[in-house]
Design goal:
mainly alpha, 9 helices, about 70% helix, elongated, Amino acid ABC transporter permease, ArtM/GltK/GlnP/TcyL/YhdX-like, cell membrane
Amino acid sequence: MAWDWQVFCEDTLDRTAVAGCFGKNGDITYLDWILSAWGWTVSVSLLALLLALASGMVVGVLRTLPDSKWAVRFGNGWVEFFRNIPLLVQIFLWYHVIPAIFPALKSVSGFVLVVLALGFFTSARIAEQVRSGIQALPRGQRHAAMAMGFTTWQVYRYVLLPNALRIIIPPLTSETMNIFKNSSVAFAVSVAELTMFAMQAQEETGRGVEMYLAVTGLYIVSAFAINRIMAWIEKRSRVPGLSAPSAAGGH
């Protein structure tokens, strides 16, 4: 079977070839379309990542608070709820069920609802890593900080979290890469990301091999880029003797 990569230079309406492969005067080529879809994928992934990091760290801390049974129970419930329901089901819940319960959310775009679903789903995994990182630290660190008169907030802010976050950077790297791959389920609620592009472009052009190979390449580029960024962060933040280099970090 002969491959036809020139399909990306065709206009999406009349399938005529466009010089330079980028549309002009309002015309859109398949190259324009796939780059736009990539932008949506990156946007969903990064916003969901920010939400997952923020909520995951809060829930992870709650699960380790001493003498706070209700906080620990809330954190445990959060993790069990979001971790045990498949991501696709959660997206449908956010898109179809929750707006029916809370009518104010009916005006919220599918893009925002996907970010919420993907962010909270990933937050459960990050919360578990934060909890593990804090509990992996010597107990003497907490006790020494409290003996110096630190409040609970100060113990976490200045002692526990800075060290725990350094420990969990390798698994956080995996979750960050996963969030880019998991963003592909956004097509289920009509977010125009890479997977939806591939499905629609295949139907229009009949060139499924080229479309899916291009989309696969962009997912690989996205995941590899975030892997290198996290490896750089790990290298810059590593404390000698505290954690070993990860496979992603290099030397």
